[in-house]
Amino acid sequence: MLAAASMFATLLPSSNAQTIDRGRQFYQSVCARCHEAGVGPELRGRGLSEATVSTIARYGGNAMPAFRHSDIDDATLRQLAEFISKSAAPAKK
């Protein structure tokens, strides 16, 4: 049992890193168009919870469009929310 727990613990960080990387990829290909171009606010480094990111992305708000399930599936949305919530603010230009 100890060996199984140890094996699970070694897989967890890699899995988490993969999840965050997938979220980063979606952010760079979709979100950065507005959120790094000054159209929308910077999202990284603001301490937004994953639930807040998911809700805003799914339902929109102000100028932010809602992203339907056909735009972003639930798994990708969770990955995106985790990436944004755990990212540090970008370096000032």
Automatic annotation (TrEMBL):
One of its GO terms (molecular function) is electron transfer activity. Residues 18-88 form the Cytochrome c domain. Gene3D superfamilies: Cytochrome c-like domain (1.10.760.10). Keywords: Heme, Iron, Metal-binding. The keyword Metal-binding applies. The keyword Metal-binding applies. SUPFAM superfamilies: Cytochrome c. Pfam families: Cytochrome_CBB3. This is 4-cresol dehydrogenase. It comes from Comamonas thiooxydans. The lineage of its organism: Bacteria, Pseudomonadati, Pseudomonadota, Betaproteobacteria, Burkholderiales.
